[in-house]
Amino acid sequence: MARIDQLDPELGASLREKYAIVGVGETEYVRGSGVTTRAMATRAVRNAMADAGLAPGEVDGMMSYSAMDSTLSTFVSADLGIRLNFYMDVLGGGSSTEAMVGIAMGVIEAGMCETVVIFRSMNGHSQTRVGGTGARAVAPVVGEFLHQRSYGWQSPGQLFAPSFMRHMYDYGTRPEQVAMVKVAHSHHASNNPKALYNNRVTVDDVLGSRMICKPLHLLDCCVETDNATAIIVTSAARAKDCRQIPALIRGVVGRVSKPRADLHYEAGPISTVAGHYAAPRLWRNAGVGPDDIDVTGSYDAFTFTTMLQLEDYGFCKKGEGGDYVSDGTTFLGGRRPNNTSGGHLCEGYTHGVAMVVENVRQLRHEADDSCPIGPDGKRQHTYDHSEGGCRQVKDVEVSANLGWATPGTGSAMVMRRGA
Amino acid sequence: MTETIVADYLGMTLQVDALDNENLAYFKHCARHEFHLQKCDDCGLIRYPVGTACAWCGSGNFTWTPVEGKGEVHSYTEVVHAIQPAFKPHVPYLLLVVDLDTQKGAPTEHEALRVLGNLATPDGILAPPEMVARVGIGSRVRMVFTDIADGLAMPQWTIDEEAEQPGQVWRYPDD
After folding, report:
1. Residue B169: inside a domain, yes or no?
2. Residue of A57, A305, A310, B54 with fewest CB within 10 Å of its CB?
3. Are the C-beta atoms of A393 and A361 separated by less than 8 Å?
4. Is B118's Cβ below 8 Å from some Cβ in A?
5. Which domain does B149 fall in, by range?
6. Cα–Cα–Cα angle for B119, A138, A405, nearest 5°?
């Protein structure tokens, strides 16, 4: 039997551009939604269906993920008059989005259903705090967690920080370099009317904000918001009947893990993340490489997560992530902008769906910024990326999404603009 | 039959279930201030944290084995903003990822038994700020224990005053 880590270059191509994302939708990014996760999910899915031009009878698959803090497909489908041929609600956080797109392709390919909507609905500020404060901070500590939470090691920032610190030690990465991730995303958010935080910040703002756990200042951390997000996957053949230019899926990898998923720190180097293992399979499946990518969506739970993934997926050499995120490349107007919506650091926290939503809109050339809408109903992009202006990347054709669960687990997806 | 252990530590409820045989055995050793880990009877590798089978060969056969509680800080974070309420009076506290000297670099170069813990005093109490300021990547540390209940103590790390410390440890650049 061939070794699992020896990829057959011929495999992975069979589903390339055979499936597409045809609809995206979300609720407002707010603190205090005032409604249930069921109500938000229903709105987001309805918005995605309207975006795609799909009626209830034209969606027959549904998937969602949660940290036991959300509603279920059974309720959301009922609220929308959808009879399902397939549904599944799973545990998970960041890195679920791209993995679920792959699963959706698989179940459609298997003939189990035709069109799948994927949603994540969370009152991440008003109910179950993403940062771990509130009810989660005082829950009993049992089983595996006796070796972690008992030490005051619980929030995502605390859990990931040893990887970030070791990267600084191994490669000389400097705080002012990594802070540029937040600076870039804040610039992008200033051109995104939906963003919770749309003020531009500086490196000094980031480094001057209060320390949470080293090396993470407050502004190195994502925001906590209430929101639901949804995307719709169907075949490229069916996509032709939908309203929008499809975002064709070229390749996907899901929840690729480092060795020792129980405690990834056991297997070093700990400054290397799951993207190192995911990258060869992603690029093999997609039939492109990092140089072919016009825009990235690298998960920004923290500034460091964005940098580590861009590095381990090969957008720069290992150890040079600090330079890559601080030399202008990842800004709108740069060679390869990252998280053009402002991402989780600025727009709102969605556990990854919103970065796919944004890249789908970028590929349609319809980023929802403040540019004027022309007589044809299309936005007339100016490509002036100054504050409050355009956030559309000019002539974007191919995008990459790099999803993050932990340093030890990640997912990714490459999409191309369809016709 | 062993009963479930329920105890309070820093405002948290710690619970070792009666069915959780591996954790019961691990913490029972800790309660005696002994550090034992599971050693695979088939491939001979020691594993951390507690598991039900070997992390390398999958064998379910193992023997609890005494392991020296000495090592070097591989990475760390210094928590300034505590999430759990009872940790707030103790900030800043350190979370250490420590390479044990035992089995370091095996079975492959970048692997090690990396044992988590807080920086603590020799008595197992969270370290005061002046001690926190001395420790970083490269620090030599030794294991101590925090007593919590019958059959339950937590391994912790303190500065190994008898070991030769590096000339300078690596700490976050603002320190």
Report:
1. no
2. A57
3. no
4. yes
5. 5-159
6. 75
Exposure class string for A25-60: b at 16+ Cβ within 10 A, else e: bbbebbeebebebbbbbbbbbbbbbebbebeeebbb
Give, for all 175 residues of chain B, the pLDDT tens digit: 579 999 999 989 999 999 999 999 999 999 999 999 999 999 999 999 999 999 999 999 999 999 999 999 999 999 999 999 889 999 999 999 999 999 999 999 999 999 999 999 999 999 999 999 999 999 999 999 999 999 999 999 999 999 999 999 999 997 6
Say yes or no for a CB contact (<8 Å) between A147 and B50: yes
* A213: its two tokens: 């756990």
Q: Which residues of A are catalytic?
A: 299, 349
Decide if B27 and A146 are in contact by the 8 Å CB cutoff: yes
Confirm whether B68 is domain-assigned: yes
Taking CB atoms and an 8 Å limit, are B78 and A214 in contact across chains? yes
Q: Is residue B173 part of a domain?
A: no
Residues pairing with A21 in the sheet = A233, A247
Tokens of B89: 């009076």
Size of interface A-B (CB pairs under 8 A): 138
Q: Domain A19-128+225-239: state its class.
A: alpha beta
Q: Are B98 and B157 in contact (CB under 8 A)?
A: yes
